[in-house]
Every structure is written in structure tokens, then in C-alpha cells.
Amino acid sequence: MSPEPEASEKTVATNRRARHDYAIQERFEAGIVLTGSEVKSLRQGRASVAEAYARHQGGELWLEQMHIPPYEQGEKRGYDPLRPRKLLMHRKEIEHVIQQQKEQSLALVPMRVYFSRGLAKVELGLGRGKREHEKRQATLKRLAEREMERSVGRRR
């Protein structure tokens, strides 16, 4: 259960499609195991979690397909920007996530990557994929709410 963003947090990348494609039920915060040049690249705000997903393997959680481009001044030989990165969570949280995924067939989606007190973190959302008609309904609802707010604003 991740708290709301604080002043000490700097968001690096967000997954804007996650809320559109998934009905998020729970959120978790996890640390990421990174190399030095990956951290420097993240601090420059260079990362993409649009195609990323998390999976469990051997009782651990791994972040797949998160793109962190190489650091400009760093060593580029042997660098894989899409390598799997281990996620750090408490054992009970990992077991809870794995159990929820198996029971309800939920997806574990990275919502955003940020720095909290100098440490790289990822906010994970545990949710069910939305169907096409659910996405359409959510869009129509959002448009209706926006129109209501406009009409209330005109009256004032």
C-alpha cells in the first residue's frame, strides 16, 4: 500500500496506460535492483515503463521490459536496456501478491518509477485487465463528469 507522493519523491516515469487498461485493486511499493549507470540514467529522468510488466519466478518478483537507456558518460559495452530487474519487497508481501495473482488471475503492472529518499522505487498495481466495453464506459463517464464541472463553473 503505497502512500501519496510526498515532497521527497521525484517521479521519473509513469505508466499512463495502466489505469486505462487495468482496473487496479491494490498498490504496492517495491525497490529495484539497479546498476550504477542505470541509477544515473534514471536520475536524468530517462526511463519508460509503458511496455513493462512484473512476474514472479522462484519466489521472487522481476520487472520485465522496463527500458532504461544507457547513461551518456557511462560504459555502454554489454549494457542491456531491457534486462530483467529484481524487485525488492518483504517476503509476506511477495507471497500475498503471488497468491492474489493465482486466485483471481490478476496482472502486476508497474504504475510509476520514482526516487524516495534517494532510493529507486516502483509502484506496482495489482489489477484485472479491462475489456473494450469497460474502457469505453470509463471514457464516457470521464467526459460526462468534465462536462458537469464545466456547466457548474459557468454558473459561478
What's the architecture, going by CATH? Beta Barrel
Structural class: alpha+beta
Whole-number mean pLDDT: 85
CATH superfamily: Small protein B
The fold-level CATH name is Small Protein B, Chain: A
Largest sheet: 7 strands, antiparallel
Structural domains: how many: 1
What proportion of the residues form beta strands (DSSP E)?
Answer: 25-35%
How many helical elements?
Answer: 4
- pLDDT below 50 for ≥5 consecutive residues: which ranges? none
The helix/strand series, from N terminus to C terminus, equals EHEHEEEHEEH
Rg is: 18 Å
Residues in helices, as a percent range? 25-40%
Q: What is the C-level CATH assignment?
A: Mainly Beta
**How many strands?**
7
**How would you sum up the global shape?**
globular
Oligomer category: single chain
Distance between the termini: 39 Å
Strand order of the largest sheet: 1-6-7-2-5-4-3
